[in-house]
Amino acid sequence: xxxxPWAIARMVxxxxxxxxxxxxxxxxxxxxxxxxxxxWFKADVAxxxxxxxxxxxxxxxxATTTIDAKGQILAPGFIDVHxxxxxxYSLPAAENFVRMGVTTLVTGNCGTSxxxxxxxxxxxxxxxxxxxxxxxxxxxxxxxxxxxxDDRAPTPDELKRMEDMVGQGMKDGAVGLSTGLIYVPGTYAxxxxxxxxxxxxxxxxxxxxxxxRNEGDKVAEAIRESISIGEQAGLPxxxxxxxxxxxxxxxxxxxxLGLVRDARARGLQVTVDQYAYTASSTxxxxxxxxxxxxxxxxxxxxRLADKPTRERVVTEMKDNLKRSGFxxxxxxxxxxxxxxxxxxxxxxxxxxxxxxxxxDVTNQIEQILAMYEAGxxxxxxxGMGEEDVQRIMKEPFTMIAxxxxxxxxxxxxxxxxxxxxxxxxxxxxxxxxxxxxxxxxVRKMTxxxxxxxxxxxxxxxxxxxxxxxxxxxxKTVGDRATYDKPHQFPVGVSYVxxxxxxxxxxxxxxxxxxxxxxxxxxxxxxxxxxxxxxxxLLYSWNEVT
Length: 545
Ligand SMILES: [Zn+2]
Known about the structure:
It is a single chain. This protein is of the alpha/beta class. It contains 19 helices and 21 strands. Helix 5 packs parallel to helix 6 and helix 7 runs parallel beside helix 8. The chain is globular. The protein binds zinc ion (ZN). The site of zinc ion has 5 residues, from loops.
């Protein structure tokens, strides 16, 4: 039999004295779910210099280190496109994310981000972190800096300054623009202001990620506004934490998903993300009328000191509660309240009973106002229906994202999603409920987020791609974090690699900090102008910066 050149090369290799290994690491015997949605296949994966160097039959003698992943799934590391990790440099291990298989975070969501994107992403050089980091430039933070917390439109000059800030953020590497249209000051922006800023993001190839104006009784209107912003500004729309938080509208997700499908049918790129829980988590003040919050807390306190104004607030909040379909604030649970930490984990109804000895709605609202006046609270709202959560999850354009920050063990009683989101999908929704195939669930955590946010050479198991990898046991993978005890790490994840380096292995967190800043296309466009089209340089930009 004639030996092929390949076979000769291999023979020569195996008969020579042991040379330096070809690869840094080989992972053998895994079932590979490559992130595309395709069925798993069996192969070994070799890694060199942070990249996937080869996929095939690879012997341990070719690598310095070998991991035997027999019986386990190897997938691209999960990309969490909806996080709030502005504080990641103080918790660089990002343990809660790493241990559920997350290797890349997109932060700056819901209208809040760093305003100096270059500085924010650049800090990774002096303070290395365990995971890759990308960010959006946030409308709320920009508006706060230029217009303050006032309830008014920006002047033409102010709008120009906001556009310049967004443009600079994009050039410095933001992946798009985010809004938080229930928060101060984002809530004071009309659609045209956001279109103007989204156009700037569009010019730099960014996406528009939005925490919409309403996720309750006016959710359809809010979806239409989001789509229209994308259409007018000419950029993709990502609707954040897609949900229906109005009890009266539970079961209406075919309608809300239909609005997105219709937009896509018209050629508009609209996608959504979701966490796998029926409770949301945000600030207490999001329950209060936005006009009350104009100018910030001190202004609001002055208004609340005026009796007729306070009565008007109470009436509006009662109307809101009624419209949302909840009879009282039992569904609202405190996650963190600094003035009295004994409130953490208790509902507004319970707290009101403890403090005021009765718990009618008026007293509950007075309790909310008192807590707001004392500085506010982080909250968990049990406001969604499971049927809608499942229907949204099944939709092909839905990705899985946590909406979480970096967690400090045992600090407050936060939403469990920060410890369990991805693995909960794999355990509960794939294995137990069989709502999704494992391959599709992985796709929603890997290639779909990478495609949507323009994260080049990530989100797939492909030769040449970054070696962000998670290895898990599909029979045991799952979440343990609960609403009562959220600080519990998942089970079933055996290895997590970021850029080819092991950050989590067999129950041990490593001290490796291989995360990279992933810069958006604005940086590339900027460089293009300076250097001309140099595809090799652009391709490796993420790696060298
Ligand atoms: Zn949000």
